[in-house]
Amino acid sequence: MTASMPETAPADAAEDTIRISTVVNDTEYHEDVPVRMHVADFLRQRLGLTGTHVGCEQGVCGMCTVIVDGEAVKGCLMLACQLDGRAVRTVEGLAGDDRLDALQEAFSAHHALQCGFCTPGFLMTATALSYQGGCPDRSTITEEISGVLCRCTGYSPIVAAIEDYFADRKDEVSE
Length: 175
Prior knowledge:
The chain is of the alpha+beta class. The protein has two domains: 17-93, Ubiquitin-like (UB roll) (Roll), CATH 3.10.20; 102-173, DNA polymerase, domain 1, CATH 1.10.150. It is built from five helices and five strands, in the order E-E-H-E-E-E-H-H-H-H. Strands 2-1-5-3-4 form a five-stranded mixed beta sheet, sandwiched between helices. Strand 1 and strand 2 form a beta hairpin. The radius of gyration is 19 Å and the shape is globular.
């Protein structure tokens, strides 16, 4: 008696794809993406934007945080096909003209990074917080960044950097 193997689709079977149009870091892209591809994989594998890190792949660690239409989202939980017609900002989109932006400068000044793996998640979360307007207090900052896990810094320098960033922006925000 021989056991039969269950029938499976051929290895070369085409995966279902969908065409999307999205703007990432102010550049428009038109791509065919697998319907099950996550945003983090799309950014890393298709667009070469490797600053978006993948950690837990369950939305817990926050390493894959990007900004979609002004809100922080976990790139490992959102599908790339959901980016159709939307605008995305990644950590690569923060700096301009070969210069760090003000938040990145604050992180550098406060030594708010060690290995750097979590840094893009913190930067994107704080950037999304800045889109909300106003100057958040320490408690709000701490709450907002709680969705990004870090094993190196103990969070104090990260919170201090974000506080300084917002303190420097008070005049801009109050106008």
